[in-house]
């Protein structure tokens, strides 16, 4: 459990570092194929797949790209209740880029989602992630619904200490 929490902290720091480096060098936003490749890269290095792709972390990242970001039924349980990594491909399938930016900037996800790290990313990085996910197309099923504190999850969970 502590290992999972530490991993999430490392993933959040990696997201912040990538965004800060990009801002510091003043790089132009990528467009077209370069933007999609940047999004793929960001999804890989920031740990998106670790939670949002079932079996990705356990396989050492060796799942085919066609299986990426379809959510997971393993819950994250703690004082907040039980959360699930959503199917990002279904989540954004009908969303415009502007709507994605608004959600990324304002969402206050429940743990262990590192919302502050997501909100710290540049618009260019967030748009790259958006366009990459859109190229994957919709696939999979929605993740299980949030279970409030005191509720009983019906799936396996990673438990965080209270």
What radius of gyration results from the CA coordinates? 15 Å
Mean pLDDT: 85
| SSE order | HHHEEHHHHE
Characterize the overall form.
globular
Low-confidence stretches: 1-26
- Spatial sequence of strands, sheet with the most strands: 2-1-3
Number of DSSP helical runs: 7
How much helix, percentage-wise, in residues?
Answer: 40-55%
Beginning-to-end CA distance, first to last residue:
11 Å
What does this structure look like?
The protein has 162 residues and is mainly α. The protein has a domain at 2-70 and 91-133. It is built from 7 helices and 3 strands, in the order H-H-H-E-E-H-H-H-H-E. It has helices at residues 2-25, 32-45, 48-52, 88-91, 97-106, 115-120, 123-136; strands at residues 75-78, 81-84, 157-159. Strands 2-1-3 form a 3-stranded mixed β-sheet, with no helix packed on it. A hairpin with a 2-residue loop joins strand 1 and strand 2. Helix 2 packs across helix 7. The longest helix is centred in the N-terminal third of the chain and has 24 residues, at 2-25. The protein is globular, with a radius of gyration of 15 Å. 33% of the residues are buried. Residues 1-26 have low confidence and may be disordered.
What's the layout of helices and strands?
Layout: H1 2-25, H2 32-45, H3 48-52, E1 75-78, E2 81-84, H4 88-91, H5 97-106, H6 115-120, H7 123-136, E3 157-159
Parallel strand pairs: 1-3
Antiparallel strand pairs: 1-2
